[in-house]
Write a structure and sequence with these properties.
The chain has 288 residues and is an alpha/beta fold. It has helices at 4-58, 91-108, 120-126, 145-160, 197-202, 212-287, and strands at 75-81, 112-118, 132-136, 166-176, 179-188. The chain has one domain: 3-Layer(aba) Sandwich (Pyruvate Kinase, Chain: A, domain 1). It is 62% helix and 14% strand.
């Protein structure tokens, strides 16, 4: 049985750990509020942008725009967006697991796969595959639209150069504070977005002014920026929600460990007291 001092030291250590995890939970909760508000404020803009792209690209000649060129898929690029920091449960590992599944799937089909890693956690694992073409690190803590523009520009230029025939984004989708799921969406080539039945009824021919080419040349890169930025916002909010849950679970686990160690401590103290009493009784009997 461990000594009383050893058990006391362990109890104090676990209590200090619980204080740290509780503080991290509070910090994550405060950050989540801001990240969630920013994400929810951007969602209507993304929705309206998708609606505009649906109306415009649906009647456009896709062969006129390089970013909409559908080619035989031989090379696939995956943009994997994770957080820069850990201690958020299985959030990052779920995204990485989906990326690894996609790699195996495409390679089984005879396709070449390259990776663009946004965030440290994904890069630290996926760099071992030797497929990382480029990485964007230390930006997920305070990213802005220009970061999304830089990523979208790099990926789209690689597509235009013919080094990739298809691009997918893999990220963490924020569904609720308690639920964040890995998700993937097609990025390139830009495809006409399917409209709902109600939208189809009111859709018709559009007159482009000044011209179709000029409008789409401006709209398509902006659309790619919006897609990347929206995915980063989803990951940012999901990271804080996952960390808040993970730190809450860690705090509760520390409390359980303290309770168990307290039982061990009481048993050890009781055994020590019993041993001392036996010594006293034995000494008294010897004196008789």
């Amino acid at each position: 049985m461990p000594s009383l001092k050893d058990v006391q030291t362990k109890i104090q250590g676990v209590k200090k750990t619980a204080q740290i995890t509780k503080a991290m939970n509070m910090v994550a909760s405060a950050k989540l509020r801001g990240a969630q508000e920013k994400m929810e404020a951007f969602r209507p803009y993304t929705s309206k942008f998708n609606e505009a792209m649906s109306n415009l690209s649906g009647g456009a000649n896709t062969t006129s725009f390089p970013l909409m060129e559908v080619r035989e898929v031989k090379q696939v690029e995956l943009v994997v967006i994770t957080s820069d920091r850990g201690l958020c449960g299985s959030f990052n590992s779920n995204i990485i697991r989906m990326a690894e599944q996609k790699i195996r799937q495409y390679e089984a089909e005879g396709k070449t796969v390259s990776l663009v890693c946004v965030g440290k956690k994904g890069y630290q694992i996926l760099r071992k595959t030797g497929k990382v073409r480029k990485q964007f690190l230390d930006i997920m803590g305070s990213f802005q639209m220009f970061n999304a523009r830089e990523i979208a520009s790099d990926v789209s230029q690689n597509f235009l150069d013919g080094n990739s025939d298809k691009v997918e984004i893999i990220y963490g989708e924020f569904r609720s504070v308690a639920q964040q799921k890995p998700a993937s969406k097609n990025f390139l080539p830009v495809q006409p977005i399917e409209s709902g039945e109600s939208e189809k009824k009111i859709s018709g021919e559009y007159i482009y002014e000044p011209s179709t080419e000029e409008i789409m040349d401006v709209l398509q890169p902006l659309y790619l920026n919006v897609m990347v930025y929206h995915s980063m916002l989803e990951v940012g909010a999901s990271e804080h929600a996952a960390r808040m849950t993970a730190m809450d679970n860690a705090t509760n686990a520390c409390k359980d460990i303290v309770d168990n160690l307290t039982i061990v401590y009481n048993k050890a103290r009781q055994a020590a007291i019993t041993a001392e009493l036996m010594d006293i009784v034995g000494g008294a009997e010897a004196l008789k």
